[in-house]
Amino acid sequence: MDKFDSHILSLLQEDGQTPFTALGDKVGLSPSACHKRVKEMEKSGLIARHVAIVDEHSAGLKTSAFVQATLKDQTEETLTAFEKAVRNHREIMECYLMSGESDYLLRILCEDGTDYERIHKEILTRLPGVERVITNFAIRKVFRRTAVPL
């Protein structure tokens, strides 16, 4: 990745619908050169996909919960089953295998406390291998970055 690729990525992370003519003007390349570079970055996996970022509050998902999940054991079978299962629930936005006291950290979006109670009863406590969950609720989102620092 050179300085042109880095600049193109920075611009696309701000507005993924920027036309190649505008990209070219901003980075000092032709539109076709920008298009070629973007296609190469997509092919290599550097650009994983193009998405629309939805405002969570506007979509009615006003509560963010951060859940620490501790499993009964850390066998490969248990970890794999847990990781496969969490992917099947759209409320679970992110899942990280952790070091420290808990095995996983999940970020969950829900409407409110009642909706979270449903998620807790119907999803979290039924995930394979779960021994304990500890939940922390966000009071307010200070900021959220979607752009990777380049």
Q: What does this entry look like structurally?
A:
- The chain is an alpha+beta fold and 150 residues long.
- It has two domains: 42 residues, Orthogonal Bundle (Arc Repressor Mutant, subunit A); 75 residues, Lrp/AsnC effector binding domain/regulation of amino acid metabolism (RAM) domain (Alpha-Beta Plaits, 2-Layer Sandwich).
- Helices cover 37% and strands 20% of the residues.
- Strands 2-3-1-4 form a four-stranded antiparallel sheet.
- The longest helix is centred in the N-terminal third of the chain and has 14 residues.
Question: What is the topology?
Answer:
Blueprint: H1 3-14, H2 20-27, H3 31-44, E1 63-71, H4 76-86, E2 92-97, E3 104-110, H5 113-122, E4 130-137
Antiparallel strand pairs: 1-3, 1-4, 2-3
